[in-house]
Amino acid sequence: MKQKKPFHIMIIPTLGCPSKCSYCWSSEEGSPMMSIETIYEVVQWLKNFRDDPVTFTFHGGEPLLAGADFYRKALPLLSGELNHLNPNFALQTNLWKLTPELAQVLAEYDIPIGSSLDGPEALNDLQRSEGYYERTMRGYEIAREHGLQVQFICTFTSYSVQFKEDIFNYFLENGLTLKLHPALPSLRSHGPDKWALDPGEYGELLVYLLDKYLENMGRIEVRNINDYCRCVFTNRGTVCTFVDCMESTFAVGPDGSIYPCYRFVGMPQYVMGHVHDRPSQEDLAHSAAGVRMLQFKEHVDRECKGCKHIRYCRGGCPYNAMVPASGEIKGVDPHCKAYKRIFDEISDRFNKEMMGSFGLETGGPSAGPMMTAKPGIMSLMMSIALK
Ligand code: SF4
Ligand code: SF4
């Protein structure tokens, strides 16, 4: 029987956004708004595109700017007409525009929401914009009143990383899952560069968060650490950064243009096709942008050949890799240093704990990881496996 390979379509209703976060490069003033006709074209395109389960993520810009009427029409179209693809939905939003009406539409489809908070209010507003925190919290309340699940992504910048303890404690004390995102440089402009987190510092931040997570097991979830552990223990990537995303992810911009990922939306040189032409997977792979994405895969096979993490790292994110070379493929993801640091740390600790539990380090049976007072990687792995 043919194995199913889930794929991901990001829908970008607009690149517009009411916030002006200092390090953001994925919004654009005056961006057009996707029409419902474009969603209809998406449906026609995907009807015979492939026969695998699909996840649609509404992303931006700020996707809620499209309004309740857009979602009231788009969701039944996508879920009803593409029923054979077993569609799932997700949404990434700052929540400012969430109204009870919109929340009700999203709740009907049980859509999990990803939002953004960079930590305590003062720090968050300094990085994002004055009044951001309060507006997001207002939307968060509406989401909760309607039973919607919200998880926050926390962007660590070259500035906020010095407050990592305050940020961790904020998420812990507020009972929030922590998912971190490093501020990145951009292909579009040099503005965000000064906020970008240095890869070495990012690696140390990940190890710090691993320790804090273990210290506070059962009281908080650090999603990225779970993902890194899963990669090491299953020997395969479990998030887009650590798989060959070019075979499974596409983004549709406001005008129906198809791109490799939301990060490229709005840049004409990365258009792979248009939904109204109903391109096949092969057509997209043969476009100039498709060829470049596949070049990255080949580049990783060569450049990362000797790395013990290659199976579950796959050279990281191709977008990140293209930024320093102005869109060319000349290296792997510059976060390689951070990935190696955390992957090494997890595998070394695991091996040590395994040896300890078999008494190989002490010369005889020891208390083992399960009986030590301080939880180790193996306890974390078990808690992840039980989820
Ligand atoms: S380009 Fe980067 S962010 Fe986009 S899907 Fe690929 S790995 Fe993920
Ligand atoms: S850790 Fe670095 S060298 Fe290893 S696979 Fe990832 S990007 Fe390549």
Describe this structure in words.
The chain is α/β, with parallel strands linked by helices and 387 residues long. The protein contains 14 helices and 9 strands. The protein has a 9-stranded mixed beta sheet with strand order 6-5-4-3-2-1-7-8-9. α1 runs parallel beside α2 (67-81) and α8 packs across α14 (377-386). The longest helix has 22 residues, at 336-357. The radius of gyration is 21 Å and the shape is globular. The two termini are 28 Å apart. One iron/sulfur cluster is lined by residues 240-241, 245, 249, 261, 263, 317-319.
Gist of the model:
With 387 residues, the protein is of the alpha/beta class. The protein is built from 14 helices and nine strands.
Descriptive labels:
387 residues, alpha/beta, nine-stranded mixed beta sheet, globular, binds iron/sulfur cluster
Low-confidence stretches: 364-372
- Overall pLDDT metric: 92
Q: How many separate helices?
A: 14
Strand order of the largest sheet: 6-5-4-3-2-1-7-8-9
Number of strands: 9
How would you sum up the global shape?
globular
